[in-house]
């Protein structure tokens, strides 16, 4: 079979959970004997604005060949920084280029991983050719231009009306900056030391920022963002199947949209293997690990407040983090960023993983990673990976706040953690890439 994926691009140019999922799935599909390609939004030219497809040499990852198609002059890619120039993100074009690509490649299925940079004409032509279209909901971009539905330290309470979208989206990158970020020059320089420092400085400030900038909001602005959402809805309605990676994702999407044809398939990645083992819980010093960024939305600052309360009652514990915190504490141990080949050692030195996300998290790979090593978890009810948690293998805190989290962390015992660990080892089902690929092919692609 021939499978064409649309995503943001290959690593190292693109990174994050979406890219990890897409690339690992493509590699697995090639291993299964399929012909696989990625189409991705690339260079935005200054003079020649016509849409074309540049066919690059195949990308070889883990000994597998993936065809490589770049869209020249796609729509802008806004990442999670917002949108202000709505017209620039809803223009159509490229029909001839997309028709030529689909005529040549003739995919059996097109798997869409994001709507960023995507022209509607691509989907319309695929639909006319009766090519099966599948969309995986990795985030909430079709609902919220900032992706997260998170505002002023809490879930956005005006998401339905869009009345505060004008204020939230003042963080949007200018189109000129986006053109630089999508340029071949930036692709080559992204991993240089100076660019890494600039990116880190920007992301640290962006993720730790609690309040949105002031902006004049009008009914007309709200109407423009509702128009943008309806535009993305029109794209999603062209899909044959919507793939949700969790019940949380499905619940949020279906509070805004109606998609009769959908399925839930929990996800995995290629570095997940069944490494479960019985752990020794004899050390009184509780080792808590947080694997997210220094972010309000991911719950880091909520966790800090909760742990400050626990520290004041003199419980012995340490919190392991993998970034340099803006404000440290006696109980914090700082580590370098980790790689997947370090997970064995990392989880050997972890008693419990905490994923305290305030925002709706479509899945949460870190939860699966912890479970794959037999590590119990304490997670927010907004984390989609709660779907894969065996009963008794961890604690899910609905409507999590500092008080609830501090109470759980204060009262949890080593005996309870040991029992959770045994339940994970005896009852858990660790989803691996081969299992996920088969389920996607059956439930999303309609293959038997």
Automatic annotation (TrEMBL):
<keyword id="KW-0808">Transferase</keyword>
<dbReference type="InterPro" id="IPR050194">
    <property type="entry name" value="Glycosyltransferase_grp1"/>
</dbReference>
<feature type="domain" description="Glycosyl transferase family 1">
    <location>
        <begin position="330"/>
        <end position="416"/>
    </location>
</feature>
<dbReference type="InterPro" id="IPR028098">
    <property type="entry name" value="Glyco_trans_4-like_N"/>
</dbReference>
<dbReference type="Pfam" id="PF13439">
    <property type="entry name" value="Glyco_transf_4"/>
</dbReference>
<dbReference type="GO" id="GO:0016757">
    <property type="term" value="F:glycosyltransferase activity"/>
</dbReference>
<dbReference type="InterPro" id="IPR001296">
    <property type="entry name" value="Glyco_trans_1"/>
</dbReference>
<protein>
    <submittedName>
        <fullName>Glycosyltransferase</fullName>
    </submittedName>
</protein>
<feature type="domain" description="Glycosyltransferase subfamily 4-like N-terminal">
    <location>
        <begin position="94"/>
        <end position="142"/>
    </location>
</feature>
<dbReference type="Pfam" id="PF00534">
    <property type="entry name" value="Glycos_transf_1"/>
</dbReference>
């Amino acid at each position: 079979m021939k499978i064409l994926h649309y995503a943001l691009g290959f690593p190292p140019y693109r990174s994050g959970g979406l890219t990890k999922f897409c690339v690992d799935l493509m590699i697995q599909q090639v291993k299964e004997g399929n012909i696989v390609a990625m189409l991705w939004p690339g260079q935005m030219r200054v003079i020649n604005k016509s849409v074309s497809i540049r066919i690059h040499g195949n990308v070889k990852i883990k000994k597998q060949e993936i065809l490589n198609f770049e869209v020249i002059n796609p729509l802008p890619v806004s990442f999670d920084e917002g949108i202000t120039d709505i017209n620039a993100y809803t223009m159509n074009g490229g029909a001839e280029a997309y028709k030529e690509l689909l005529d040549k490649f003739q995919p059996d299925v097109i798997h869409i991983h994001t709507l960023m940079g995507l022209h509607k004409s691509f989907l319309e032509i695929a639909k006319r050719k009766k090519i099966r279209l599948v969309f995986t909901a990795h985030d909430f971009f079709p609902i919220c231009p900032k992706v997260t539905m998170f505002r002023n330290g809490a879930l956005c309470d005006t998401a339905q009306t869009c009345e505060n979208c004008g204020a939230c989206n003042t963080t949007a990158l200018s189109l000129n900056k986006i053109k630089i970020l999508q340029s071949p020059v930036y692709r080559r320089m992204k991993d240089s030391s100076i660019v890494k420092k600039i990116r880190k400085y920007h992301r640290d400030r962006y993720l730790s920022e609690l309040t949105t900038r002031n902006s004049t909001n009008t009914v007309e602005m709200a109407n423009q963002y509702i128009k943008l959402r309806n535009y993305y809805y029109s794209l999603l309605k062209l899909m044959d199947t919507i793939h949700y990676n969790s019940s949380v994702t499905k619940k949020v999407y279906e509070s805004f949209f109606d998609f009769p044809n959908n399925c839930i398939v929990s996800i995995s990645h290629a570095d997940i293997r069944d490494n479960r083992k019985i752990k020794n819980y004899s050390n009184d010093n509780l080792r808590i690990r947080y694997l997210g960024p220094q972010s309000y939305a991911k719950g880091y600052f909520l966790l800090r407040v909760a742990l400050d309360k626990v520290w004041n009652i003199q419980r012995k514990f340490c919190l392991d983090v993998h970034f340099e915190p803006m404000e440290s504490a006696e109980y914090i141990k700082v580590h370098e960023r980790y790689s997947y080949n370090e997970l064995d050692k990392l989880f050997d030195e972890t008693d419990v993983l905490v994923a305290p996300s305030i925002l709706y998290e479509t899945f949460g790979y870190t939860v699966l990673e912890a479970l794959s090593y037999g590590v119990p978890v304490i997670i927010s009810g907004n984390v989609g990976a709660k779907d894969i948690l065996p009963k008794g293998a961890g604690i899910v805190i609905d409507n999590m706040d500092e008080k609830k989290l501090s109470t759980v962390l204060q009262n949890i015992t080593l005996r309870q953690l040991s029992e959770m660990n045994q339940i994970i080892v005896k009852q858990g089902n660790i989803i691996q890439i081969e299992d996920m690929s088969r389920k996607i092919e059956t439930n999303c692609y309609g293959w038997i």
